[in-house]
Amino acid sequence: MSEIADNTAPLAPPVLISPKAPGVRLKVEQASFAYAATDRSAPKFTLGPTSFEAQQQELVAILGPNASGKSTLLGLLAGLARPLSGRIEVDGTEVSQLDLRTRAQRIALVQQESELLFPLRVWEYVLQGRYPYGRRLRFESAEDCLLAGNALAQVGADALRDRWMDQLSGGEKQRVILARALAQQPSLLLLDEPTQHLDIGGKVELLRRLRKLADDSRYTVLVVTHELNLAAEFCDRIVLLHKGKCLRVGTPAEVYERELLEEVFEAPLEVEMRAGGRPRVILRGNY
Amino acid sequence: MRPLTPRRIALICAGLCGVLFVAGVISLRLGAYPISVRDIVTTLFQGVIGRWDDIPGGFKSIVWEIRLPRIMLGILVGASLSTAGAGFQALLRNPLADPYVLGVSSGAALGAIISLIVAPHAAGAIQVAAFAGAAATIAAVYFLGRRGGQLDSATLLLAGIVAASFLSAIIMFLMTTLSGRDLRGMAFWLMGDLASQPSVNAGWLYLLLVIGAGSIYATSSDLNLILTGEQEARHLGVNVHRVKLVVYIAASMLTGLAVSVSGAIGYVGLLVPHLMRMMFGTDYRLLIPTSAIGGAILIVVADTVARTAVAPTELPVGAMTALVGAPVFIYLMRRRVR
User: Fold this and answer.
1) Per-residue pLDDT tens for B216-256?
2) Domain A2-283 maps to which CATH number in 3.40.50.300, 3.30.565.10, 3.40.30.10, 3.10.290.10?
3) Chain B: nearest CA to A108, how far in angstroms?
4) HSE (CB half, 13 Å, CA atoms) of A273?
């Protein structure tokens, strides 16, 4: 890889820029999802009609307590399930109409990674992100290597390139998983609770990185998280879910109302408005 | 970052083929009637160019009619088992999976034993019955191992293990009805042996090997992703359901093929993919062909030892591979844990 990078370094941009058209990237119109345990039992709604939009360069947080439908919504956005009603469009095409590989070229989903069965090097792992672009047997081209290397550089994980995946710390692993998603060159980047196993420093660093990816590289980033304050600090838009219903969509200042948050999260909360219109949530003393 | 290239695969496979060739020549040399390497090479060469009359009579029958067919059978069985083993390890997402874990060999043995009881003297019936037993088991385990219409690794593994133990129980019952001579024939199915040539044309068997191994190889880049997680593979655009179905059918067919011509030779399908992983890495695009050739080498060597170590008595090659395979595998496993 190093020799390839050296030859082409002056030509290649140092970061991946999402190449797709600007404007509204994601459009969710009255999308709902229901699930029935068996064919005969009545369907159980896991997500009521939900509508929102996300633009290029936007960082959107999906918030809500456990079992509020966050993962269901993310699954619909990723095209893993077809909505019962309504539409979900990415770059003007309905997600459920996309074939598997085209979908993987437009939407990348980062989840908590499964345990690896056999050891894998970091660069091998990141190169897997190029799969949707490959031919039969998918022998990786020099361009694939370059893009994978850039993706690693973009998350600041250049130095990890030759390490084994199972020897990375939680934060390092999270960055490598993110790099694989970037190697897919998606227009939409979805992250399912990426902050879960990180310490506070790691959480801040991750959100800062996602903000930068949205600002500089023009990705549209959607992140499911429990971190109310980090979401308020870094995100442009909040989608608040509660018991399978989309309660409110808007800027952090519009969504973070004390009564609403207290009802949703069932905890005594205080909302402070800070300079710049970014709210902050604190736990009230007398619990 | 050094991604895998077709050139690297070709080089490594050529090297392994060289090793296989050397193993084959040594195996041709050894036996009750030793032949010099030079005579072997001349005999082979003259046979290939069709000048059969120039070969001394004894050499022709020993090399071309006795030892070479046995080596070719060993290559067929070793390649089938190892490829199937590598396939099952990815399909079941379990490093301890081997070709027999889903009960295919028990199904084949049951087919064979039923044929021994029902039609003990019909030529070729036993191999057909063994293959039919294997195929029936594959179908049964497939329907038991589905969940929500899709093959689920954990359910499939459980279904296979239950099917295998159920079939073994039936075999044990039926074995009490067999006479002494048939019992020895039965030991062949349970232990594995290359001593008897199949009555089916070997060309057909090789064709099945190429189809089965080729199908698995065509999915190898998908298997790489499935090994890092089925969900992730799906997000990256892999049609996981189709890949699993292809690998399940192809790997089961290869196992059925190997078992119906040689009985259940153990450990090859488990050990060889792991050995190749340690030598050449985990990429299935390289692992499948190296496992196929590696399995062939292992069987040819093991069978040569089995038929010459305590000559004139022949040991069953299955006992040989298990004898060597079990300790080696325990060693590898302990090394992994540490």
Assistant:
1) 999 999 999 998 888 888 889 899 989 999 999 999 899 98
2) 3.40.50.300
3) 7
4) 10
